[in-house]
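Why predict the complex rather than its parts? Because the way molecules touch one another can change local conformation, and only a joint prediction can capture that. The input here totals 378 residues.
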Amino acid sequence: MGRWAPDARGRLEYAALELYTEAGFERTTVKEIAQRAGLTERTFFRHFADKREVLFPGNRQLQEVLEQAVTRSSAALTPAEAVTAALLELSGLMEDRRELARRRQTVIAAHPELQERELAKLASWSQTLTDALMRRGTAQPEARLAAEAGLAVFKTAFESWIATADPQHTLGQFVGDAFDDLGRLFARS
Amino acid sequence: MGRWAPDARGRLEYAALELYTEAGFERTTVKEIAQRAGLTERTFFRHFADKREVLFPGNRQLQEVLEQAVTRSSAALTPAEAVTAALLELSGLMEDRRELARRRQTVIAAHPELQERELAKLASWSQTLTDALMRRGTAQPEARLAAEAGLAVFKTAFESWIATADPQHTLGQFVGDAFDDLGRLFARS
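Output of the joint prediction:
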């Protein structure tokens, strides 16, 4: 579990993802998750509405991280730079969670309805970034484009981060490199 | 209806979108759609599985358009240029359908479950573009990034196209301009 703090919520998340990959998402019960974590079902339900929720923890907080990062970014930053800064900050919160992220992605990839929820989550991030950029003075189409392109970068970087065998290669590095790649790929000639 | 051909399928689609915006998506029945189009319910079900399907017509064909456009694009084109060419070709198929697209977007925006399906459709386009680029020799992360960024551009351009009051401003122009904007926004300094 690395440096990731094993509080009750974290233990439940870890136990759930172990069971989802071992026994399958459908066959795992909340009771089993609580048992594996050494906690009660009641504690489980204090942290998560259901076993699906474990796969999408804290989306509201993550949106707030993105929003605040854009809002407090220097006025000297371009919209693209503000989006980059926000997604690098988000990446920093995930660095210790690569193994969890891998397990999570395996479960999601096997279930179309979870994939749809994942896409909805990413769309909510894009909307958060767009709104924050507009409040900072960027016009709508440009804000939308910077946000959507940022998410395109983040998705690609996240996949590379999960797939790499190099434990030293951070998500932040993948995100930074993918932003560079985007600039290179779509450079106007 | 402009130059858009009013065949049975098209008439059903047009009637459905009129009714969805007039009476609401939930309250509209297949019977009413068929009546408005001057056709039978049986004809409706020959073209669409249900009233939801009317909002997502021909996704398989659209994926084929994207795939073939990338596949037959000149080897001299970069991945980004091949994606641009494919999305411009797709845009060409939609130019006559702006009013339909507007009505459709209004219905979708009001229903989270339709939004999720819309996101899944766009994700399938991204996957199609990624696969086609890889078959053309582009490495996975670069193919994925070019495809995801292309979709980011298309989404933004599509929204601008639906929102504009200028009937002469084509989707293709919005897409071309948004690709230029992307290059400008994320240019490496």
